[in-house]
Amino acid sequence: MASSQHVLLSPAELAYLHASLSLTPPIRPDGRSPTQFRPLVAETGILPGTNGSARICFADGTEAIVGVKAEVERTRTRHDFPSLDESAEDDDDLDDNQNDVVKGDNDWVEMTVEIPGYRDDDAGTVFLSAMLSEALLADGEFTKRLWINQRFHWKLYLDILLISPPLSYPLPLLSLTTHLALLAARLPRLKSEGDEDPLFDDDWAAAPYLYPRPSEKGSKATAPAPAARPPVTLLVMAVGNNIIFDPSKEELAVADVALAVSVGESSSSTTSTTSSKPTAMDIDTEETKGHNLRLLSVRTIDPPSRLTPPGIPNASNSAYGANAGAKDTEKKKQQQEQARTAESEAVEGVWKAPRGGAKTLVMATMVQKVLEKGGVADEVLDALDGVDLN
Amino acid sequence: MPLDTSAYSLALLRVDGRRWNELRRIHAQIRTQAAADGSSYLEMGHTKVMCVVNGPSEPGPRRGATSGGGSGGGQSKNAEVAVNIVIAGFSSVDRKRRGRGDKHILELQSTISQALAASLHTHLFPHSTINISLHVLSQDGSLLAALINAATLACVDAGIPMTDYVAACTAGSTSTYAANDEGADPLLDMNHQEEQELPGLTVATLGDSDRVAVLVCESRVQVSRLEGMLAVGVDGCKQVREILDRVVREKGIKMIQEGTVERGVGLNDMELD
């Protein structure tokens, strides 16, 4: 869908773009630095009928609205889960997971993406929603927040609407909007105790946030393992060895590689339990400030540059007299061979769609650039902190 | 949820405290979105819709379920008005997801498309398509009316020539079909609760005139009450038109003041303060 959208650029324009993006430092058409994001306008709590909602408007005019709606649903009894009674505490010899009463299921989250002009079963739309929900469900921590008691849980519906026509690949926009909507989402406060039928507090002001705020973290001692933030999926692309963040549609049209990198932030307590690697622990102890980032998923995205038409070098262009005077069939044959080599080999200044896979080193650098301290993900999360959540 | 209609006769006030001839709060904005040719945002009470217009442009490959109005295809002499409605899952109180093939949505699409195709000067744009996509963010009755109003505003913003505003509004009656109530009052601008319980119709008129562009009635009404309802509805449409017109003029004045557009000839007498 949107990633392979048609870009109306000639091979010469593509070659020019590619050349300027592969300079050091790269020169982007809109004058941004390689790690700079487009400016955006964000607001939350726009729809009082939802549990949480957000709207983000990028400077290029693309706009998305996300609404989160929660419903109470009865949990299906699972036969592999023996503890419907209080005996769960006794079975310490069982698996660690069995011991953990708070459980989540990926079925508890339903995500739909609506893009005007595209069917909801369009491959691109399905791929987008799969990428977004994958990041959300990757660490299994999120669904635990939806747990009410042994018998009931919250079913969370995430409806993602792209309001504007998809000008650029909408993944970062949708991901950031979803992030904000989840941050703003609140669920009614539970009044009932234990495994009785859930009863909720009518007072919306008392409703706790799905992701508890740092300030009230202390009071929410009962909240399940407060991982601080929902995930963010960033679009990163590479041209040559240059790594460029938040590409516009034109930049994506000359990308050698495009990656969707999902990054989550976890509180130090969860990291210390989940990551057994000593390196991760070192980072935790070294730097207390900043975000505690964790890589959740990486997906390669087929860049639209693969579908662009190649340019023809002057050497093989008949309009520039390449075949002039070629009367002998032998000579013609020779020139055809030359043309063939010209087609397969890169000629300076002539556009050729990138072929083959990405270099491992480039991919590793892209992921590293996202994750490093003070890197792009840090910056994005800091910027999103500035959004007023009401 | 049953609506206690008997309370109406006591104080002549409706469930939300309005009198029979009062509209809900209408709030509208145009040019809400930079990337589109025209856009608008409209609230009628708690019904909130957004509209984005693209075009008139060369018709692209046809995707999804769009309904053509005016006349079908991009090969015709008139521009095709393609309307696409997305009803967000979170828009109603209980989450209910509607697929694109939903009959109700298809009907809304073709109604809006035909109403606008009649009002827009589609003959000026042969072999082209005007894409109107409507997003329903919140529903509380009068959905079709809100969609038509939003689409009109967005078409104005897109600068597509049209004869006049297509302003829409709903009207109902205080008594159900079965009750043989002589003193039934007509009601203006129904909310969701009233729509569930009482007969109602949606009417859209062309500008200041009494010419009806759309009339949709999906409930059973006694014929004797229809005339009253229609009269109230048409009257409401005129009020809605005033509101839409004010929104457009305010935005126009703002754009001139900000210097986005140049002051045209003959605008010198216009009040700019």
TrEMBL record, chain A:
Bias (Acidic residues) ranges: 86-98
Keyword Ribosomal protein attributed: yes
Organism: Neurospora hispaniola
UniProt GO cellular component terms: cytoplasmic exosome (RNase complex); nuclear exosome (RNase complex); nucleolus; ribosome
Subcellular location: Cytoplasm; Nucleus, Nucleolus
Gene Ontology MF, one: mRNA 3'-UTR AU-rich region binding
Predominant location: cytoplasm
Family in the record: Belongs to the RNase PH family.
Protein name, entry field: Ribosomal RNA-processing protein 42
Domain of life according to the entry: Eukaryota
Entry keyword annotation includes Cytoplasm: yes
PANTHER family in the record: EXOSOME COMPLEX COMPONENT RRP42 (PTHR11097:SF8), EXOSOME COMPLEX EXONUCLEASE RIBOSOMAL RNA PROCESSING PROTEIN (PTHR11097)
Extent of Basic and acidic residues compositional bias: 327-343
GO BP terms in the entry: exonucleolytic trimming to generate mature 3'-end of 5.8S rRNA from tricistronic rRNA transcript (SSU-rRNA, 5.8S rRNA, LSU-rRNA); nuclear mRNA surveillance; nuclear polyadenylation-dependent rRNA catabolic process; rRNA catabolic process; TRAMP-dependent tRNA surveillance pathway; U1 snRNA 3'-end processing; U4 snRNA 3'-end processing; U5 snRNA 3'-end processing
Ranges for region Disordered: 77-100, 263-289, 301-347
Compositionally biased residues, Low complexity: 263-276, 314-326
Keyword vocabulary terms for this entry: Cytoplasm, Exosome, Ribonucleoprotein, Ribosomal protein
From TrEMBL, chain B:
GO cellular component labels: cytoplasmic exosome (RNase complex); nuclear exosome (RNase complex); nucleolus
GO MF entries: RNA binding
Transmembrane segments: none
Protein name as catalogued: 3' exoribonuclease family, domain 1-domain-containing protein
Domain Exoribonuclease phosphorolytic: 22-161
Coiled-coil region list: none
Taxonomic lineage from the root: Eukaryota, Fungi, Dikarya, Ascomycota, Pezizomycotina
Region forming the signal peptide: none
Family, similarity comment: Belongs to the RNase PH family.
GO biological processes: nuclear mRNA surveillance; poly(A)-dependent snoRNA 3'-end processing; rRNA catabolic process; U4 snRNA 3'-end processing
Highest taxon listed in the record's lineage: Eukaryota
CDD domains referenced in this protein's UniProt entry, alphabetically: RNase_PH_RRP41 (cd11370)
Ranges where the record places region Disordered: 53-76
InterPro entries the UniProt entry points to: ExoRNase_PH_dom1, ExoRNase_PH_dom2_sf, PNPase/RNase_PH_dom_sf, Ribosomal_Su5_D2-typ_SF, RNase_PH
Gly residues bias spans: 66-75
